[in-house]
Specification:
heterodimer, A: 142 residues, Cathepsin D, subunit A, domain 1, 7-stranded mixed beta sheet, 3-stranded antiparallel beta sheet, 2 helices, 12 strands, B: 0% strand
């Protein structure tokens, strides 16, 4: 049976109140040292997970040691990005390996996108109730 | 100019100008309060990497290799 946790939509800008609620979710990221608690935006329109440069450094990652580069789009297109794989723990759900585009672009949130967050978790958005539910994906059959 | 004189002058403006005046005053007050409304003609960044499928494919491949190692 899939495990599930429920989170509230967060007011991103107090000046705009209800109009600024977004699905930001607490998640603990871990690479090699202690885990780091961050708030990540669940973004179904994002093709990939995105990790800000400073967060990668805090996790103990070394930019020079990440040799796989990727080209992002939109505002992130002009800054270099490299592939970084870390473990993510959401609430009471089991720890899961997440692959990020680690970007040098400034002022970017941690973004959880299609590859591979939404491939690993089933998410239901209940915006009318300002809630969303995150479930582990069903175990593979056979 | 007193407020009463100002109101008298404002009421001589056409409807469109009066609406524009209200908008300007609201924007000024919001700015003074530190509230920055979205402004016409200004570009706002959106971080979402839409259609970055090339990056997504590369990352899936890297993840597959990582999973195979462990």
């Amino acid at each position: 049976m899939a495990q599930a946790d429920v989170f509230p939509f967060i007011v991103a800008d107090a000046a705009f109140g209800e109009a600024s609620r977004l699905p930001f979710m607490p998640i603990k990221l871990q690479l090699q040292g202690p885990s780091l608690a961050v708030s990540a935006l669940l973004d179904t329109g994002s093709a990939v997970n995105v990790l800000p440069y400073e967060v990668g450094l805090q996790l103990g990652a070394a930019w020079e040691r990440q040799t796989t580069t990727v080209r992002l789009t939109g505002n992130l297109a002009n800054e270099p990005a490299r592939v970084l794989t870390v473990f993510g723990t959401i609430g009471t759900l089991p720890s899961t390996r997440l692959v990020f585009a680690w970007t040098r672009a400034p002022a970017v949130p941690v973004i959880l996108g299609q590859v591979n967050f939404f491939m690993e978790f089933d998410v239901c958005f209940y915006r009318s109730r300002s809630l969303f539910e995150v479930k582990t994906k069903p175990a593979a059959q056979g | 100019m007193s407020l009463i004189e100002l109101l008298t002058t404002v009421r001589t403006l056409c409807r469109a100008d009066r609406i524009r005046l209200v908008q300007c005053l609201v924007a000024d007050l919001a700015r003074e309060e530190g509230i920055t409304p979205l402004e016409d003609g200004t570009a706002y960044p959106i971080s979402t990497p839409l259609h970055a499928f090339d990056a997504a494919a590369t990352m899936l491949e890297a993840l597959g290799k990582k999973n195979a190692e462990t």
